[in-house]
From TrEMBL:
SUPFAM superfamilies: Homeodomain-like, Tetracyclin repressor-like, C-terminal domain. GO terms for molecular function: DNA binding. PANTHER family: HTH-TYPE TRANSCRIPTIONAL REPRESSOR NEMR (PTHR47506:SF6), TRANSCRIPTIONAL REGULATORY PROTEIN (PTHR47506). The keyword Cell membrane does not apply. Pfam families: TetR_C_31 (PF17940). Residues 18-78 form the HTH tetR-type domain. InterPro entries: Homeodomain-like_sf (IPR009057), HTH_TetR (IPR001647), Tet_transcr_reg_TetR-rel_C_sf (IPR036271), TetR_C_31 (IPR041583). This is TetR family transcriptional regulator. Keywords: DNA-binding, Transcription, Transcription regulation.
Length: 195
């Protein structure tokens, strides 16, 4: 009957819950990591967020809207994280170090990497999500272009996505020297960060 120790008491206590919408979006991202875009449901998200099912459908009129807004939240968060990775880079060697570390941390940043690939996969079937993938690509290439110029940035961006995917799927991690060699080759004759 709503006693403090009864099941469901936590849900009733949260009458004023200003962060509920964000918690639902974060829970949707968790479900996208574990079950993929094809496996997300309102029920799974509600259970993960510890909110009533009606609360999810109140904030998001459809599953497509929930998924799109969750992916938009991911892109916004990842954009800031990506920008921060390069904040201290001043030399070509530092740039290569950051890029090698980015690839090698793919498995340890599993959640973020999986969400990136889930977004790309979902965008293949849902043209409405392509704007998010294009936004992410524009941003990541703009960050890289500050160090390399636009043509090399485009080539490097594609290489990084492939290397991260391979790192996630590999039974044995690739030696760091191989990753470094691939990145160095993609950089070509770029002398160092462009100011």
């Amino acid at each position: 009957m709503g006693a403090a120790g009864s099941p469901g008491a936590a849900r009733r206590v949260r009458r004023h819950d200003p962060e509920r919408r964000e918690r639902i979006l974060d829970s949707a991202l968790d479900v996208l990591v574990t079950d993929g875009a094809a496996g997300i449901t309102h029920r799974k998200v509600a259970a993960r967020a510890d909110v009533p099912l009606g609360s999810v459908t109140y904030h998001f009129s459809s599953l497509a809207e929930l998924q799109a807004q969750a992916f938009a939240r991911y892109v916004a968060q990842r954009t800031v994280e990506f920008e921060d990775l390069f904040s201290g880079v001043g030399t070509r060697e530092e740039l290569v170090d950051v890029l090698v570390e980015l690839v090698r941390q793919g498995p340890s940043r599993h959640r973020s990497a999986v969400l990136g690939f889930e977004l790309h996969l979902a965008a293949l079937r849902n043209p409405g999500l392509r704007a998010l993938t294009q936004e992410w690509t524009r941003h990541s290439r703009a960050v890289l272009a500050r160090f390399t110029g636009p043509e090399v940035a485009a080539r490097l961006d594609a290489l990084l996505e492939g290397l991260i995917l391979h790192a996630l799927l590999a039974a044995e991690p690739e030696p760091p020297q191989a990753t470094r060699a691939a990145i160095t080759q993609a950089l070509g004759t770029v002398a160092g960060p462009e100011q």
